[in-house]
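Input sequence (300 aa), recorded before submission:
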Amino acid sequence: MGSIRIPNFPAFCHPDFDLQTNPHCHAVSLAAEKWALATPLFLDAEEEGRLSGTRPGLLAALCFPTCDASQLLAITQFLIVIMHWMDRPRSLYADEEAFDPIWAKYFRPTMRREWQKRFQRHLAAFRLGRALTAQDAAQGIIPDLESYIAVRRDACGVKMLLDCVVYAGGLNIPQHVYEHPTLQRLRQDAADIIAWATDVAAYARRPYSGNIIVVLMHERRYTAQAAAHFAGNLVKDTITNFITNETSLPQFDDRDDDVRAYVQGLRDCIVGALHWLYETDRYFGETAEDVRSSGWVFLS
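Predicted structure, token format:
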């Protein structure tokens, strides 16, 4: 067993990002956990035991602080399904029906057709990304950094998390606006920040090939500590890029208010996800506060 020192990711957000929590967090967390435990043949005994400490409801509440209780419940249930798919790769298709009621009840009736198509594309890309990651792991293949980053954006599910910004805000972002180069850069920045910070945190729990630290150790012959430092600087620099790109955002006429709300939603997801890493026991267990204050992580 060794140890590495990781960055304080929430500190990278200060003072440019404001952390908020949805007031429906507690009630929705309880409701979502009850739903998950009542869904037959969904979570196994180990996942059921971890569910409360994982705090998916808090992740949703930090990333979507202004949505109503019904929207927050839908997002929380979806996050539970995503984590289940990630922890149990064989369930990705076998348990597809776990997501169907969420889609039918919450997303499909309220969202525009173009949003639905976009979300389904990201869901398909997530499944492919997970399959490619599992294939590499089974064959002992460690991809190069550029290839890993491209696959990781899909395989971590963050694109669907960012899709929920439109859902949670009741926003209208037409496809031609969604595809504007500045919004594309902001989305990619947000996705990379969340994916890479999560990777660094996840390394403490499960050092494996599908991780940016392992990729850096292999490609650049870094130690784990040097790789964690490099990845931390990537996160920090990308937060700076996000802030810079935000300043170049043009006006969008009658959709401008929606776009500004959308970018604020991306901001909420960044700061919320980075703080959640230290509030869940998914990565650091009972030592999360010590990790936040000192940065030291003991590897399992």
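Checked by second reader. The mean pLDDT is 93.
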